[in-house]
Write a structure and sequence with these properties.
By secondary structure, this protein is an alpha+beta fold. It has 34 helices and 17 strands. β5 and β6 form a beta hairpin.
Length: 734
Amino acid sequence: MALRFTASLPLLFALIASIGCGDRSAPEHAPDVRLSSATFVGRAACSECHPGPARLLEGSDHDLAMQPADATTVLGDFDDVEFHYAGVTSRFFRRGDRYFVRTDGPDGEMRDYRIAYAFGVRPLQQYLVEMPDGRYQALGICWDTRAAVEGGQRWFHLYPEADVDHDDPLHWTAPSQNWNHMCAECHSTNLQKNFDSQRNRFETSWSEIDVSCEACHGPASNHVASARQAGGRPRALPVALSELRAGAWEFQTGKPTARRIGWNDRSSARPRLQIETCARCHSRRTWITAAFEPGRPLEDSHRVSLLEADLYHPDGQILDEVYVYGSFLQSRMYAAGVTCTDCHDPHSMQLVAEGNALCSRCHAPTRFDTTEHHRHPIGSPGSRCVECHMRARTYMVVDRRRDHSFRVPRPDLSVKIAPPNACNECHRERSTEWAEATVREWYGSERAGTPHYGEALAAARSGRAGADTLLLQAFATLANPGIARATALNELLRYAGARTAASVARGARDADPLVRRTAAEMLGRLPVNFRLRVGVPLLGDSIRTVRLAAATALAATPQASLSPDQSELLERAISELRKALQRNADRADALVNLGNLEMRLGRVAEAEATYRQSMRRDRFYLPAYVNLADLLRRQQRDEEGERLLLEALAVAPGNPEVHHALGLLLVRTRRIESALENLCRAAERRPSNPRFALVYAIALFDSGEKEQALFVLEQAQARHPSDPDLLAALARFR
């Protein structure tokens, strides 16, 4: 929202008074009657009739995802070995047949901790420690299971450059390293988190302690019972995942790339079912419901991350750990109907072919596996399809993973917006300009001239002039992947206006649930009448994350603005939202969101209690401090709020968000010198946030430092040339 400056009030106090810290086609899904009475029966029952898949699963990464710690499963050296890190000497040892580590606990004191589980198997193995309150915590010191000649067979720390100690949010005892929430769903079968919020305790349970048959196919008791009946025909599994039978890949005459035949079209639910089943774990997402139903759309149970700046490069290439799905959604392979099992055996996890032979199953080697195509000597690294089309990045120090967006190398984008490219990954001594010129020489200039949504996202993140127009184009281009269109729509939020509102309205009717969810999440920043017109229909959306986003945006709607039917719909969606947040009440972020919901509903006492509960859950989660301080401001309790923000700075010295909130508080209490100091720190330490610079400049202007205020605004406007609030402030101050 653009700021309006008035001559009758000091600018900063006026500001402080106003701020705090395609068509839809998705059908309704009826509950699956096969799941209503089905229970989990375990792998042994499945293997009676399916011995082949059971044999393939044995010894796979899924099979070894988590194992009780014993002599057959622990790969690390526990022969009284010491490891030194961040001033702490940890010791790994055994007592009889049990495994232990002596290391620093949550208070920094050295203690002996028993290893309960071995976690993972290759290329590294972590170890889980059971804590008294039902928590399992993953040690930050891991065992490198690679061969010694590859640099393995050693202990190492996941954060080798960070010097993580017990006062760090990445310490092994912190919530960020908690197995029950962060890891358990994807390393076990039929996981029930079972967090007791009142006792702050987990009673987590599972059917099998690895990723077994029913983790993907759903509870199989009805299927097994019908199969065991004499002469009976087995009932279908809840999730059959037999896409390969739904269509085959065939080469058409004269075409170098195979097409999938025997299925309807690219919007078919069949391939999406398999991919979204895998994506439950192979994606960057948040689990929002305990009542997971196998076969339901992914966004009905999980909120998938968009192409956010801290997760992906501007063009959508992997940056942080994003676990494949968000990348694959961007690929032409996904659009053409490729599924996970077209390349990976679903039970052994192994590739179905090695090297270029895998790609040649659908891409004619006479066209693509040639020097005319890849321009590298046969047998060289540059001749391997994956080196050009699946850039790799190393996570967890030793785990090299490939980008599944299967993109054509675009060094021209590296020149324009600075993401990496496959050419310079190998030719590190060469410039991106050299790579761009070489690709242009080999393949012509057409590729470099092709518009890419990454240019719009990069423009928005750098505040470049005209970014809003590029974002509108990226969103409106239906050929762009849905996750990219949703991200472009989300970035439009900073450009309030009629065109943005129109895009939100279109997004609310889009076929892709990621786009509809994003549109719903944006409604809270748009005018009330528009919010109601567009948002109320989303309260009844078939996808849970869309309904929850709409409920968040409309929670504060006065009853008088709604019809009885609309009011009932909103109440039902809010109840569903509350359950989703309470399900993750072990997490400080979920509790802050629950507190925010209570504030929207006018339940201030409940909001305060929830914010304080969030601080107890995780003392490192700073939004809890900032939001509670803002609540206290509304109640004229700034003295308490100040103590709270100082406590936050003790936890995270120099945090710009906390300095900004403290600066605003000090302005309200007329301590201008200290206010300027804190607002300056916020602006300098978070230059990507133009609002911090704006507030600091207004404070300077009101305190008589007009030249310095102009300098701060001009510097910020150079970084964010199209920011309307900065432009308005510059016009006013000049």
